[in-house]
Amino acid sequence: MPDTMRAIDVKNDKGPATAMYINSSVPKPVPTATQALVKVRAFGLNRMDLMQREGKYPLPPQAPKTMGVEFSGTIESFGKDAERGFKKGDAVFGLAYGGAYAEYIAVSTHMLVHKPEELSWEECAGIPEAWITATQAMYLVGGFEPGKSILWHAGASSVSIAGIQLSKGDNASAIYATARSSDKCDFCVDSLGATAAFNPNDGDWADAVLKATDGKGVDVIIDFIGPQYFNQNLKAAARDGHIVNLATLGGPVLKEEVDMSVFFRKRLRFEGSGLRSRDEQYQGKLRDQLVEHAMPKFKDGTFKVLIEKVFPWDKIVEAHQLMESNKTKGKLICTID
């Protein structure tokens, strides 16, 4: 077998979308002890890919320089200590530290899931990052339980699309979202089942949340925006509320004054979290939770992978440019010929 493969590369290692190209002489990965080598059929795009391409995302030490953390495909071979339950030729999907924008990927078997017949390669490639991130933020960090209320910022993003469905499936008392267009707000309510969605361009969304909850606020807030929403998150949170921060899309620096007394008056918890930097054991536990909790609902159609558009991978430039436009409602997927 050849020891090279095709993979998406970036000229000079960083740059705009137009700097990406298919490099036909990338070393083919060799699976280490606990890994499987998977021939990739489809991979999902994520906003971290844009940041990595621009040289703005710190990679974990075990990540290859090739972008991409979620994929679907078939197992070609194994390392000597790979997890039992998989065999050569199995159709799988999974989460990786990187390397999914390629013909082959070496990935821990702890992060692989058997592909169900009910789902396509493209759908499976759109599950791992969004649904595992939403599961982690909502349950492990946010402490969500049935009967609690929850707010998902960036409601039309892939993680929040997953999170709103998880919240509905686990009997949240109310599900709120924010999104910066009326179309996306309507999508969150009409298509996903959110109780209400608020457009920050229309005014103080925190006041709207308090009005909708009769002044109580929400129990769990999942935030990707950061400092721009910090004070409003404090206002919108209920007593004993948990605010989970996953990103700082609005910028990393808090410029407004903050009334710290809100924390002890409301008994709030604010916690940042990430997934890509976690070890295999932690990610494996999340995989197991996804398989046990969500996969039956994917199979019966209760949970859906919403895909905005599928591109052949030689159109990766156009795919990244569409993600940069912030006009999508769902996953962008690339398929490999």
TrEMBL record:
Q: Does the keyword NADP apply?
A: yes
Q: Name one Pfam family in it.
A: ADH_zinc_N
InterPro entries annotated for this entry?
Answer: ADH-like_C, ADH-like_N, ER, GroES-like_sf, NAD(P)-bd_dom_sf, Quinone_OxRdtase_PIG3
Tell me the keywords, alphabetical order.
NADP, Oxidoreductase
For this protein, the record's Gene3D superfamilies field holds: Medium-chain alcohol dehydrogenases, catalytic domain, NAD(P)-binding Rossmann-like Domain
| The organism's place on the tree of life at top rank | Eukaryota
Entry keyword NADP: yes
> Which intervals hold domain Enoyl reductase (ER)?
15-334
CDD domains, per database record: p53_inducible_oxidoreductase
For this UniProt entry, the molecular function terms from Gene Ontology, in alphabetical order, are: NADPH binding; oxidoreductase activity, acting on NAD(P)H
- Protein name in the entry: Enoyl reductase (ER) domain-containing protein
Instruction: State the organism of origin.
Output: Cryomyces minteri
